[in-house]
From TrEMBL:
This is YggT family protein. Keywords: Membrane, Transmembrane, Transmembrane helix. Pfam families: CCB3_YggT. It comes from Novosphingobium arvoryzae. The chain crosses the membrane at residues 12-31, 73-93. GO terms for cellular component: membrane. InterPro entries: CCB3/YggT.
Amino acid sequence: MLLYTLIDIVGYLISIVVTLVIVQFIMSLLLQFNVINAQSDFVAAIWRSVNALLDPILTPVRRIMPNTGAIDFSPMVLIIGLTILQKILYGFAMTSVQ
């Protein structure tokens, strides 16, 4: 039962990271199209915070991936990898409970 609880906590942390990646993507689009202003203290604080949380996770992924020019696929690779990890952990938890 303890193993299932730990895997559930890791699943929640993975969900939080995936949500942060989506927030970063949406904010980058809004900043690029000048929908939100990067000069705003609130927007700049959120942008710095999200980047500070995700850069340590995305940097190793960017090192592994080939250079694709202007398009950064590392957030998508991170989301797919974390989702696969989450499915594997939940599958492991289900088989260990039975």
